[in-house]
Amino acid sequence: MRIGIGSDHNGFALKEEIKGFIEKTFTHELVDYGCYSCDSVDYPDVAFDVSQNISESKLDRGILICGTGIGVAIAANKYPGIRAALAHDTYSAERAQLSNNAQIITMGSQIIGPEAAKKVVEAYLHSTWAEGSKHKVDKIIKKEREFFRQGVGTTAAGNQCR
After folding, report:
1. I need a surface site. Which of 26, 68, 149, 153 has the fewest CB within 10 A?
2. How large is the greatest C-alpha to C-alpha distance in the chain, in angstroms?
3. How wide is the angle at C-alpha 152 spanned by C-alphas 148 and 157, nearest 5°?
4. Residue 32, φ and ψ in degrees, nearest 5
5. What is the value of pTM for the model shown?
């Protein structure tokens, strides 16, 4: 499996911990999309890079980290075809993959500690989509395609734009 990992500056230290854990525990190929220091970085840029590479089948899964995990989840989910799930416990990490075929999990470095985060990552990477909820995921995919065909989007104020 090819896994992309990325963070903003708030998630840098946790990303480095998770990288070391994956490299030591798994045989998966790991690709680091930054950031590479504690210097300020905009989390959407990293989330978009990982999402694009998953969309293009260059990666199988992704792990994104920011302060809360919320920002990178929102950004990743804006990318067509991506399902990113916030996971701060092993059950959520398993269900992200088993029930939703989420290609990305997100975590918040200000929410979860390194040891718990390692368990979340392990649960996620050991899970395989069971396809028992395929009809639900297919509904999400269908709706997303409808929106893109129609050119529907909204601005922050809620106005439709085309």
Report:
1. 149
2. 48
3. 140
4. -95, 120
5. 0.89
Catalytically active residues are 66
Q: 37: which 2 tokens?
A: 């220091």
List all residues 6 or more positions away from 103 whose beta carbon is below 8 Å from its beta carbon: 54, 59, 60, 61, 62, 82, 83, 84
CA distance 138 to 123: 24
Per-residue pLDDT of the chain (162 residues; tens, 9 = 90+): 999 999 999 999 999 999 999 999 999 999 999 999 999 999 999 999 999 999 999 999 999 999 999 999 999 999 999 999 999 999 999 999 999 999 999 999 999 999 999 999 999 999 988 776 788 888 888 888 888 777 655 444 443 433
